[in-house]
Fold each of these.
Amino acid sequence: MNALVAVLDFISQEILNVPAYLIGIVAAVGLIALRKSAGQVIGGGLKAAMGYLILGAGATVVTASLAPFGDLIFRVTGAHGVVPTNEVITAQAASEYGTTSAYLIVLSFLIMLLLARFTPLKYVFLTGHHMVFMATLLAVVLSVGFGPGHSALVVAVGSVLMGIIMVVMPAFAQPYMNRVTGDDKLAVGHFNTVGYVLAGALGSAVGKRSRSTEDMKFPQGLRFLRDSMVSTTLLMLVLYLVFAVWGMIAVPKEELMGVFEGAQTSDTYGSYIMAAFAQALQFGIGVSIILYGVRIILGELVPAFQGIANRVVPGAKPALDIPIVFPFGPNASLIGFIASFVGGLAALALIAVWFGPAWGMALILPGMVPHFFDGGGAGVFGNATGGRRGAILGGFVNGMLITFLPAALLTVMGSLGLANSTFGDADFGWFGSIVGLLSRLGAAGGSLTALGFGAILFAAAWWYQVRLVNNGWLPASERAALQEANKAAATAS
């Protein structure tokens, strides 16, 4: 009997309590369900586990580079500066919340399949890395709100909420997605959906006669920004150097030399600047390592999940990552990215000048990864309904959204809110903030109100799907009709 207890204790504490092993086991189970060979199952499970460990190694590099940057911002401005990067905050939370989030991923995926199978919301969310991010977010905010000792309740409530949000958000975006793709075969599965829907709605309002972004030639010199690794590192170089120079003006030299380790060796401004330069490069290296780890995890998890989903929910639409829309508007994605970054800078200025001093709001520095993907997606949705005006306005408003909402989210993240990073996409901001605030009512009150909030969302999406999506409603119909008339006139002439 003691031997059995020892074995069960070993399995629960040394295997199932380690997120990397758990992810590997889940991938292996999915591959077994797909009747893969023994070699494919072993290889897939090992690669998924190693991907999670690589993700943690990258997080260590990024955390080491962000720590002196946060210290520098605090010394210069007296404010808490935060760079929203989903991969970084997920990796930072993994040691404390990794096991809970792993159980959340598995259970929520099963709940999503049941909802897609038996309700009108027939969407299968297949963006694996956003499943990981949302699971981590819910594990954090529910654990902080419920307090210690409620891990099982966090998994139960979080799984239901995550299962709901994975079918609700693709439904709300579907009419706009249909306008982008021109048919009803694909859905968007990316937790910045509120930004895309808002961009599409704004495009409908302002761009009736605006020409499409795809009718213009974009400068070749800016196309290197499409590489998110290059753009992320470049932005961090600019941010590090701006605050480093600001520090030379505002902070005494002897205090400034202690910020970066490399600057202490020669004690000159030259070594200080180069130390800041090196830390910015370290950030880009760390993010690249994290993205590599995420790609390895997804390469094994997503095919396993997708194969299972296809067997359980025939006829459902796959909800895919936001780059799926970029080919429908290459120029719009780049315009949306730049407009989103400008919107992020505008929101940063408002926080620095107004909201920060008045309400203590953290400085949300523009994170290149969310601006690139979210802003690009918003540009494509805005262009589909409002041409160039829609792409610019949609991208700009999206940039403000993904600056203000992460600032609100920090208030419900407990000690992780001081980790110099946070979740960057809009849905993480609004959904996490509301669930986090409701969970503060305690384990009983918080779980009931959070589930009630999820039920309201689900009912609204059900009505939207039946009354609008299933009846073929499309936004910006007048603009589409006008474009068709113009094409017909051009052909006739």
Note: The CA atoms of residues 124 and 318 lie 5 Å apart.
Amino acid sequence: MAKKELMGLFTDAGYAAEAGDALERAGLTKNDYDFLTDTPYPEGALGERHISHKIYVFPFIGAMLGLTVAILITAGTQVSYPLITGGKPVLSVPAMAIISYEGTMLGAILFTVLGILFESRLPYFRKRLYDDRITEGYIGLVVEVDDSKVSDVERALTQAGAVEIKRAAA
């Protein structure tokens, strides 16, 4: 069944939160709607779903990959081109430690940036409903719903105090 995207615009956070409650009473889940606002409300203030981030995993994986690549490069280079100086071993740990540290940090930084982009869902190529008044203090409540429930959602948004309801262009 085809889904439609609707957006209700609210002037007050209380009305928007009430609309979220009305949508749940209409049978929608918290995954079916999302709030758009320019104000950083505390998490859960509007009744939105809790999103758990796993951003801390990305630097750890990047650091491990960077360390592994750095050790492979330095050990591979020293084994491929053995230069025995004064009877010392071919693999020199102090020289490898510096490159390993740099590789670890580079991997952690690069994966942190990638993690931020991934967790922020960027880039987002699908065009979503938006209204410029959201930057002026309005609160948008974007709902993705089956065609059969569009009228129920519009009624719930209107009764909650939406000043305007927008539909995505088909």
Note: The chain has a mean pLDDT of 90.
